[in-house]
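User: Fold this one for me? It's ABC-type quaternary amine transporter.
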Amino acid sequence: MIRFEQVAKVYPDGTTAVDDLSFEVAEGELVTLVGPSGCGKTTTMLMVNRLTEPTSGRVLVGGEDVAQTDPVKLRRRIGYVIQQTGLFPHRTVLDNTATVPVLLGWKKARARERAAELLELVGLDPGVYGRRYPAQLSGGQRQRVGVARALAADPPVLLMDEPFGAVDPVVRERLQSEFLHLQATVRKTVLLVTHDIEEAVRMGDRMAVYGQGHIEQFDTPAAVLGAP
Ligand code: ADP
Ligand code: ADP
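Assistant: Here's what I get for ABC-type quaternary amine transporter.
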């Protein structure tokens, strides 16, 4: 579903973010990208939804070269969850969740119905939380809204950049298990960035372990842990 072919990315200021990335993620697979800060994990994600372009090599999503795909169409198929959630502060939780379907031209009532379903799915009672504003939620609840919003248009691919990074360890563990439970139902193709090796092991069907600018190991958690 996602394929990188000898991808390199050098930013305009000359920084090499990734030097040679080749890997493949199967449909419905959850791959964690793990490694120290600055090793190229976020850059990898940004090349999937074309928020940045590779300097060389190709990135394919669903068999299509993203460089040949209209970015707007591409992003309809790719949900994106980031650490600070990027929720709109002046919109209610329900409207935040309904944003993407509305942009896609769904009728408002249908988009809101869908948003309510999704809030339910991530464990937030839409009747209670739907009308609140992001500032009236806990950090953990905001992250759940971020996940609900990313799922709203039912994209086959989900990019998650440190989705559970901004909450305390107890909440993080709860969100991790809730997401795994959710993933068992929705079966998205997921790339999940983390610098927390335990999270990578727990969440990943496979793990991409980064060194500086490239992947050193790409294997199941058991194989990565078992490696010398
Ligand atoms: P990670 O997500 O693993 O922390 P990044 O992909 O964000 O790593 O960054 C990889 C490298 O590219 C780092 O050295 C970072 O400073 C650099 N970098 C990231 N974004 C830019 C940018 N827009 N311009 C220049 N350098 C960048
Ligand atoms: P968490 O453990 O999920 O981070 P918090 O301790 O931050 O939870 O919040 C606990 C409860 O307080 C949550 O149910 C949340 O809805 C509520 N809450 C937090 N901040 C606010 C606020 N500013 N206004 C209203 N309710 C809030």
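One thing worth pointing out: Residues 169-186 form the longest helix (18 residues).
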